[in-house]
Design a protein that fits this description.
By secondary structure, the protein is mainly α. 53% of the residues lie in helices and 5% in strands. The chain contains 29 helices and seven strands. Strands 1, 2, 3, 4, 5, 6 and 7 form a seven-stranded mixed sheet that branches. A hairpin with a 6-residue loop joins strand 2 and strand 3. The longest helix is centred in the last third of the chain and has 42 residues. It is globular and about 90 Å long. The N and C termini lie far apart (64 Å). 44% of the residues are buried. The N terminus and C terminus are likely disordered.
Length: 797
């Protein structure tokens, strides 16, 4: 009776598993590999690997001598070509046979096709699960050999090995390969060693189905040697016995004439034309507005700078990159008590860029996964693993600014403050730049680069955006089709907008009826804390989103990410804590409340402790000591955001008091204020840069602290540079247009009502670039009840 367990124990373990992949290219005829005799992995080895085995007989091309004499080239490293009789395409089989024939003669194009395919896997047991071959070499192959022109196709296939559930490994004196493979599927922070991605270069006439069928046929003898069978597809968990799974998707195959870096241009789609025209129009307006502005500043008189302009001139100057750039890089300190939040935004977005770089790197191909795995046993890494809570900082800041500014504006204008106008203003403020980035994702992003994993990463993301862009436009993508969300980070904008819709009337209630408003705010805070508790306890959810290499590979396919990290109802408590702190700051400033030095010191200590506690405790969930307990999980899910946000809230409050000097110099350094104003645009573009970087990799990434530091620094610099460009194109002009339109609306009213104050500062000296106002058509935003969003209010990250 065939005993796969004993058979595996007798067969050299490493060869057993590696041969599953290597023998895809075996020149042994398939008919011979399917003899009725009991299969043996060693007997199925190619001549170069078998113990003193003779050359195989039969019709294999590899069985014949090459024209130059001596051992056939394919004996040393057997080539791969879909020549199985099961392959449905006759053209594919004919081209594959031609390829093998030309390879025996060492014809250049055939040798390049063989050279471009992945060979013997290296580092598989160390966690390097991508054998990509040479992507660019494969797609550059073109030939006219034979009766018709032929080119190459690159396909990234996946082969998975499932071990039998009955496999007993405890009685072996030494560890076998099976120990490591099995442990990699059981330990959550390990990279799976039972799944290998294999890059193959084949004739372009072969489809993904042809390749998949041939792979299945080739692997059947080895699956039989393990006591199972080869199957097409990836769902093998329901089958009994060890099974080899083969998956090749047409979307994972690329041709040189359509997909490679040297591909001929594909026709533009309608969407690409629309987005391209949108960017071109924005660029032309910016160039025109900048040119006119510079001309006026250079050759115009002082009177020209301050005379009444026509409507068209005003609107054109709104697109001036020069004027908008000066406004953006202003570093003057105002009397706004929350101006230091520009610094807090900058430092926080740097942490988020670092966190997302870790996500993308861990989810990509890694050469030294075992090096990464050891960090999960180190307590020091808890700062990174628990760092996902940093995003709640922005919810807290957003809520704080919303309540503080609405309270301040209500004191000035009372009933003139309009909630619908706030909604419209915020939508106009955020959406143009947001939709510009979404448009890039949906249309032009796939044209930027290429790589073995480009279809799995970039094209999938582009398809999500082209199909679901409307959910982003309506800010409902965190609830509607979250599993197909466009832009990984866009869930935040959805949640922040939804919380803004709830928070604005609540802040107005705090202004009109403070006692009732505080009761309602407290109720909202309690409810937003109870919801995570109940859902975690009832549904047995994870208390945190675990940052493992397998979970971050495809975040939108991870249930924990969609149920515990993305939904707005899991993020409400930080926002409402921020609103509470905004109310306290406003109230204490109105009543001139001061705090004692002892209170300040105790507050800072408690603030730091409250922020560190959820991060340190989160390490428990990564250790073997943690056994899932729904009650403890529910308590942590409910309280850890409150603890962090409470610490952030106190820090914001303390920095507005006379004891803010302790950290005020760090957060309130005016030189970083311009970078703080760019956080929104940097937030929108940074994930795209990181995604392109990982998707265009040609080989597994070697991870080290040094390499990650370089990557984070490069990500940060490039994100702010690209963010500046996008801001000048879309964000700054929209803000300027809002000012001009509001000025035109309000200027007709009596200026004594305090609705508009036009800024007309005299020039310092003619020719001085700072001689004139930062923008010739600015007005004091704080003097307009319809526009209460100053530079600090809209914290989008």
């Amino acid at each position: 009776m065939w005993d796969p367990i004993s058979k595996m124990a007798r067969t050299p373990s490493l060869f057993c598993y590696v041969s599953v992949i290597l023998l895809l290219a075996s020149p042994v005829p398939i008919a011979r590999a399917q003899q009725d005799t009991e299969p043996s992995l060693l007997s199925l080895a190619p001549p170069s690997l078998g113990p003193e085995s003779p050359a195989p007989a039969g019709g294999s091309v590899a069985a014949s001598k090459s024209s130059s004499g001596g051992m056939p080239f394919s004996w040393t490293l057997p080539p791969f070509a879909p020549v199985s009789p099961r392959v449905p395409s006759e053209r594919c089989r004919a081209d594959s046979e031609l390829y093998l024939k030309e390879l025996e003669s060492l014809t250049l194009w055939a040798a390049e096709m063989f050279d471009a395919s992945a060979k013997f896997p290296t580092g598989l047991l160390h966690g390097s699960t991508l054998e990509a071959g040479n992507f660019d070499e494969c797609l550059a192959i073109e030939t006219t050999s034979g009766t018709h022109p032929m080119s190459a196709k690159y396909c990234l296939s996946s082969v998975r090995l499932r071990l039998p559930a009955s496999l007993e490994l405890e009685n072996h004196k030494h560890q076998l390969i099976w120990h490591k493979i099995k442990n990699s599927t059981l330990i959550p922070y390990h990279k799976r060693r039972d799944l290998l991605y294999w890059g193959l270069c084949i004739p372009s006439s072969c489809s993904a189905l042809d390749l998949q069928i041939h792979l299945q046929h080739s692997l059947e003898p080895f699956a039989a040697a393990l006591g199972g069978e080869a199957v097409v597809g990836s769902d093998i968990d329901e089958l009994d016995g060890p099974t080899i799974s083969v998956t090749v998707e047409e979307s994972h195959c690329q041709r040189g004439d359509t997909d490679g870096p040297q591909s001929r241009s594909k026709p533009l789609t309608t969407g690409e034309i629309i987005v391209g025209c949108w960017f071109a129009l924005a660029l032309l307006l910016v160039i025109g507005g900048t040119g006119y502005d510079v001309y006026q500043r250079t050759f115009g008189t002082k009177e020209d700078q301050f005379k009444n302009k026509g409507a068209m001139e005003k609107y054109l100057l709104c697109f001036s990159a020069y004027a908008n750039g000066l406004k953006l890089f202003e570093d003057e300190v105002s009397d706004n008590p929350l101006q230091f939040l520009n610094g807090a935004k900058f430092y926080s977005i740097c942490l988020i860029i670092m966190g997302h770089r870790i996500f993308f790197s861990l989810g990509g191909p890694i050469m030294n996964s075992q090096y990464v795995e050891q960090f999960y046993n180190s307590f020091e890494v808890v700062i990174l693993l628990g760092g996902t809570i940093v995003v709640d900082t922005f919810f807290t800041i957003s809520g704080c600014l919303l309540s503080f500014i609405i309270l301040t504006e209500y004191k000035k204008y009372k009933s003139q403050l309009s909630i619908p106008i706030l909604y419209i203003n915020r939508f106009i403020r955020l959406t143009p730049l947001y939709m510009a980035v979404v448009g890039l994702y949906a249309t032009l992003l796939p044209r930027i680069s290429s790589g073995p994993m480009w279809p799995q990463r970039i094209k999938v993301e582009s398809d999500r955006c082209s199909n679901n862009w409307w959910t982003n436009l309506l800010y409902i993508n965190s609830f509607v089709k979250p599993e197909d969300m466009c832009m990984l980070q866009s869930w935040y904008l959805s949640s922040d907008m939804q919380l803004f819709v709830l928070g604005a009337p609540l802040a107005l209630l705090l202004a009109k009826r403070p006692n009732l408003g505080k009761i309602v705010l407290a109720a909202f805070l309690i409810i937003s804390s109870i919801i995570p508790f109940v859902l975690t306890y009832v549904l047995s959810l994870e208390p945190i989103f675990p940052v493992y290499m397998e979970t971050v590979k495809d975040l939108l396919a991870n249930e924990a990410y969609l149920t515990t990290y993305v939904p707005t109802y899991m993020r409400g408590s930080p926002y409402f804590i921020g609103m509470l702190m905004g109310y306290l700051i406003y109230d204490h400033r109105q009543r001139k409340v001061t705090i004692s030095p002892v209170t300040a010191v105790i507050g800072y200590v408690l603030c730091t402790s409250a922020m560190m506690a959820p991060i340190l405790i989160s390490w428990l969930f990564y250790t073997p000591l943690w056994t899932y307990n729904p009650l403890w999980a529910a308590f942590y899910a409910s309280l850890h955001r409150i603890s962090w946000s409470g610490g952030i809230g106190w820090g914001i409050y303390a920095l507005t008091t006379e004891y803010g000097w302790l950290f005020g110099r760090f957060f309130g350094w005016k030189r970083i204020f311009p970078l703080g104003r760019l956080t929104y645009s940097a937030f929108l573009v940074h994930c795209g840069l990181q995604l392109i970087d990982v998707a265009s990799l040609r080989a597994p990434l070697y991870l080290s602290i040094y390499n990650m530091t370089l990557s984070v620094m490069a990500d940060t610099i490039l994100s702010f540079l690209l963010g500046f460009f996008m801001s000048i194109l879309f964000e700054a002009p929209v803000l300027s247009l809002q000012r001009v339109l509001l000025q035109s609306t309000k200027i007709k009213k009596d200026t004594d009502e305090g609705m508009v104050s036009v800024v007309e500062e005299p020039a310092k000296t003619v020719g001085d670039p700072l001689a004139f106002p930062t923008h010739p058509y600015t007005f004091h935003q704080q003097d307009n009840s319809a526009y209460i969003h100053d530079e600090n209010q809209d914290v989008h990250l």
